[in-house]
Amino acid sequence: MALLDLLPKHVFTSRGWGLLASGGVSLLAAQIMGRRDLLTLAVLLLALPLVSLAGTRLLKPRFQVYREFNPASVETSSTTMVRLAVARTGVGSGLVVMEEQLPPRFGQSPAFRFPARSASSGTSRYEYHLRSTKRGQFRIGPVTAEFSDPFGLSLHRHAIDDGDILTVTPAAVELPATGLAGARGNDGVTATRIRANPSDDDVMTREYRHGDPMRRVHWPATARHGLLMVRQEESVTTPEATIILDQRFSAFASGMASASASASHDDGFRLSTSNNFEWAVTAAISISAHLAEHNYSLRLLDSAGDPAFCRSPSAPDPEAEEFSGAAGLQSIAEGLAAIQLTAPHHARHSEPRQNEPRQNEYGTEAAGHHGADPIPFDDHLMDKLAAHRLRGPLLALLGNISPAEAKALAPAAAYGANAFAIAVTDHLHNSEEAVEALRLGGWRAVTVTARTPLAAAWSAFDQGQILIAAASAMDVRRGAAVPR
User: Fold this and answer.
1) For 188-211, what is the mean pLDDT?
2) pLDDT value at position 414?
3) Partner of 5 at 20 to 30 A CA spacing, among 108, 216, 225, 333?
4) Inter-residue contact 153 to 12 (CB < 8 Å)
5) Which of the two residues, 361 and 307, has the higher pLDDT score?
6) Which pLDDT does position 366 carry in this prediction?
7) What is the spatial distance between Cα 353 and Cα 480, in angstroms, rounded to a whole number?
8) HSE toward the beta carbon, residue 56, CA cutoff 13 A
9) What is the mean pLDDT of the segment spanning 379-400?
10) What does the alpha-carbon distance between residue 67 and residue 138 come to, in Å, rounded to a whole number?
11) What pLDDT was estimated at residue 60?
12) Are 142 and 158 in contact (CB under 8 A)?
């Protein structure tokens, strides 16, 4: 038995190895004794296991596998239920031991027998649960099964499906209420009284209705129509928040080695990220959820002005940049699931998206991080912000930015009703000059580390010193022209 333990387990069974050994002994005896009958026996004993081995590899049983995740995408540290339905579509019989292949981070792979005792209509159903503490996309499966020939001489394990992708999204952190939203209605809209130069929408008129105040009578329209007409003095708009998510490798490179290792080689999944960037990703989903709860529509861009998820392999629509409602928030969460730091060749005018390497469960190597990042906070971003000028707050989630980059971003504060910036850095004192440049431009800016509680950073926007700095900057800008 000790000798059998040294032999490969997934080629021949103990019976198969026994026949091969017997065939070898018979062949040796036939050679020594010159017996043709022993030679015939040796050929038979050797041929049976080899023919069985060829049969198990060429004649593969056919199965159909259906796999469902509930929920389809799951937040980090939450549990999703996996439902498997396995049915045999070809000829075959007998029990088969199957195993669902999982990345090591999910623990031991579940094994089960087919058919199950409770199988109905030839379909066996199984359930198990998965949980991941890291965001990303992971291949769950395939289901593998070990098959044997009718004589029980050889074994062969092969996959009976291709597996499916499980998307693990970052979990949102509940944020405290702050003054960020400004004056709001309970239904999530902002009523703006136009005191001078009303828009075309504001001068639209309708017939007078009982109860309308006389101050709303529009006399020119009344004279024109011969009926008493009133005007709309208030326009109702849905507030929109714009979030700029910095994804540059150079801005978040600190701690890269340790963070990449934690995303790790051992389960075939590698994400180009860092602890600081993970903090920014969590902030992005948390702020999005907080604003969506207050009925804001959301717009997400990167530092170059492109859609924030244009390079995320998990994004449902990579080119989308505007989101609203529960469906929009879910799209944001899925886009953030596999978002990662951009390599230099990910610039706006680089190769088409379909030719770019994707960092996911297939273990694709991280793109090279040599060279310069795309130019951030340039005219392309400013044009994007100008197109939605003053529709709501502007928020920037930044990494380590230089004073020059901060000065380039500073004028963008003029495009938001309010402008907020969070800079994630390893050393707070290194960002003082850059943060001061943002504050002088009208931003409410704070610096944090990856260890700073997100709720505390969010609450810092209501601290007096930040408000005073922003107010001073607004006084400086009050007479200045708004760029473009």
Assistant:
1) 56
2) 95
3) 108
4) yes
5) 307
6) 39
7) 40
8) 23
9) 94
10) 14
11) 77
12) no
Q: What is the dihedral of CA 471, 474, 476, 478, to 10 degrees?
A: -140
Task: Read off the tokens for 353.
Answer: 């998206």
Identify the pLDDT of residue 462.
Answer: 79
Q: What angle do CA 256, 171, 237 make, to 5 degrees?
A: 110
Phi-psi region of 203 (alpha: psi -120 to 50; beta: other; left: phi over 0): alpha
3-state SS track over the chain? CHHHHCCCCCCECHHHHHHHHHHHHHHHHHHHHCCHHHHHHHHHHHHHHHHHHHHHHHCCCCEEEEEEEECCEEECCCEEEEEEEEEECCCCCCCEEEEECCCHHHCCCCEEEECCCCCECCEEEEEEEEECCCCEEEEECCEEEEEECCCCCEEEEEECCCCEEEEEECCCCCCCCCCCCCCCCCCCCEEEECCCCCCCCCCCEEECCCCCCHHHECHHHHHHHCCCEEECCEEEECCEEEEEECCEHHHHCCCHHHHHHHHCCCCCCCCCCCHHHHHHHHHHHHHHHHHHHCCCEEEEEECCCCECCCCCCCCCCCCCCEECHHHHHHHHHHHHHCCCCECHHHCCCCCCHHHCCCCCCCCCCCCCCCCCCCCCCCHHHHHHHHHCCCCCCEEEEECCCCHHHHHHHHHHHHHCCCEEEEEECCCHHHHHHHHHHHHHCCCEEEEECCCCCHHHHHHHHHCHHHHHHHHHHHHHHCCCCCCC
Bigger pLDDT: 226 or 77? 77
CA distances from 293 to 188, 192, 288 (A): 9, 21, 8
Tokens of 266: 């051992």
Q: Residue 118 burial by CB count (10 A; 0-12/13-18/19+): exposed, middle or buried? A: exposed
Residue 460 to residue 444: CA distance in whole angstroms: 9
**More reliable by pLDDT, 261 or 172:** 172
Quote the CA–CA distance of 413 and 421 in Å, as a whole number: 10
Q: Extract the tokens encoding 320.
A: 């989308």
Question: What distance in Å separates the CA atoms of residue 278 and residue 275, rounded to the nearest whole number?
Answer: 5
Describe the strand order of the beta sheet including 123-131 as a list of residue ranges. Answer: 63-70, 79-88, 123-131
pLDDT grade for 445, boundaries at 50, 70 and 90: very high
Is the pLDDT score of 94 beyond 90?
no
List of residues 6+ apart from 234 with CB closer than 8 A: 191, 192, 193, 194, 202
pTM over 0.85: no
Do 278 and 365 touch, CB atoms closer than 8 A?
no
Cα gap 341→312, rounded to integer Å? 10
Contacts for 99 with CB less than 8 Å, ≥ 6 apart: 109, 110, 111, 112, 143, 144, 145
259 or 401: which leads in pLDDT: 401
